[in-house]
Amino acid sequence: MTTPTTSGTSIGAPLDRIEGRDKVTGRARYAYEYPAEHVAYAIPVQSTIASGTITRIDCHAAIAMPGVLAVLTYENAPRLSENVSLPGIGTITAEMSILQAPAVSYRRQIVAAVVAETLEAATEAQRLVRVEYQQDEARVELRPSDPGLYRPTPTHAYPYIPDDSELGDFDSAFAAAEVSLDETYTTAATHNNPMEPHASIAQWQDGQLVLHHSTQNPSWTRNVIAAVLGLPAERVRVISPHVGGGFGSKIIPQTEALLAALAAQVCDRPVKVAYTRQQMWSLISYRTPTIQHICLGASKEGRLTAIAHDVIQQTSMIEEFAEETAVISRMMYAGANRRTTHRLARLNVPTPGWMRAPGLAPGSFALESAMDELAIRCGIDPVELRIRNEPEVDPESGLPFSSRHLVACLREGAERFGWSGRDPAPGIRRDGRWLIGTGVAAASYPAMRQPSQATARADPDGTFTIKIAAADIGTGARTVLTQIAAGSLGVELERVHAEIGDSALPPASPAIGSTGTASWSSAVVAACRQLRDELGKRDGAVQPGGLEVSVDTTDEISTQKPLSRNAFGAQFAEVQVDMDSREIRVPRMLAVFAAGKIMNPKLARSQLIGSMTWGMSMALHEESVLDREFGDYLNHDLAQYHIPVNADVGSIDARWINEEDPNIGPTGAKGLGEIGIVGAAAAIANAVYHATGIRVRDLPIRIDRLIDAATATR
Ligand code: MOS
User: Fold this and answer.
1) 131-181 confidence digits (pLDDT tens)
2) Of 180, 197, 227, 577, which residue has the fewest beta carbons closer than 10 angstroms?
3) pTM for the full predicted model
4) 337: CA distance to ligand 1 center in Å?
5) Which of ligand 1's atoms lies nearest the C-alpha of 513?
């Protein structure tokens, strides 16, 4: 239910989600729930080897099963276009090239698919497909000594390029530094697990492919699927009004939509595909594990003179994916001499991909842990150390910051958290069996806008409609865009309806990189202002056919002043560690952000505390454990892959300062879906050190890691 508002006041109001009631009563339909007559079900058959070639596929037993309609393999599946490049998207991922060749490059790669009348028949028949292989030696483990480490092609532009950067003379400055730090930090592979798994229904209707599909971007998905199938984009439509989370894993269309489309084409009937929770660990993109080497050199007063952040991560045999892990070290702190590098190992693993705050989440763990260690070595309070290294301009690009209120966030956070008077000595505070510690870390995330189009429409009944192929992946985008439209039109919220989540609407950028609100609202505001002007010229009269205006923000965004645009934040955490069992609890997390103008405080808070909770999860729980022998993840379900439950989350508080930044966009919104995870894991790791005196540089901070370290130091 929406709260009635008066015109002009809807932006910034803490409104409930417009579709909230539909969601909690089950009326909101997700991709897999759409009715489709005469529907069939497709299930992938996945390889049992990590490297090799299919020598034979025996489908006889599967085909003979009652209800089985087809078994698709590389021998009979329709041919797909490969290496297609699309404007704004780049070359389409090779992971999309399913069922085209006998090569196998990772375990549980799709090698066949069964289509059947029922899910049960498909599931059973899938077990009867016999695949024989010629097996090759596989390499599955990320090692710092991998001889094949290589520099990624610097083409990948979201949100920064994960290439190399250099300024000044790092080596000399580091050698000459009065205080120095040279440490290696690692983070585990972790897997995206949105509540709604990846799902699609494909229906061919009069030569048009209609996909009900769970996606972060109806427009891109349409373009990619059309290109791969060799169709003009107009012949594909992607409908996706409600999405139960994506976190990056639903940006690039995943194989489920393509599998459904191919099966629907072959069987000439609608086909549903939904990946199981277990399949998320092989068919869905994940966060690469990282090995991060950080070197810091500083004066005795803690002023940084040398900063290096060298990262090793993995990609697959079929595709290059590089995450921008070290980019946070390019802009967070001042320092004349600096270097960042990214190196990739090609392994027999699925291609990694985006996961909430790609790069910056693991990168900030390393940098912000290192800053804590440096503070201790310099004998300076870690909040003060960060303030001392505040840069005047973006240190590597030399660009002015559009706004940078990190110091304000640190000060306000310290005040609210009760930081002052903190004794830095580790392992000395106790409450019964619990050792107590506190930690701090800084956060940042780029504030970007992507080009989008939008249409605003007035109807004679006094209502307004905004149309934009935006995606509400659970963030509240529909609500916020309605608020922004009502505010721009100067009408009550109840008179405005937002149509989103459909590629038939004006093309929009994806829900990507926390850019949704800023990007889509730029188009919505422009369309609404033009519509209001048009209505003004006509004294508000709307003809029976209605009045529509459409805008495209491509030109406006491409002529933006070059500035370093980022959101900032300060994360604080308190932990308790059991003296003997080393059980870790997090009674308190508090963060203060500078994230531009907040469009809806209720939704903003949800995004931020959700992200902070994920930061805790990253610090203490999440780890996809590699099976070194077979090249698969051992804990591929939510029983064995740990995530925090309610009882693990103590008091968690997300706040923001009032930030006005005229250089962001027409609404002043910076985006805040991802910044909440940045720095959160480091704040917890720093608190664990403060509680125990044990520095864990490998995530997650498992109990055994704390016990091993405790034993080693005894
Ligand atoms: Mo975000 S990882 O760009 O969905």
Assistant:
1) 999 999 999 999 999 999 999 986 655 556 778 999 999 999 999 999 999
2) 180
3) 0.96
4) 31
5) 3
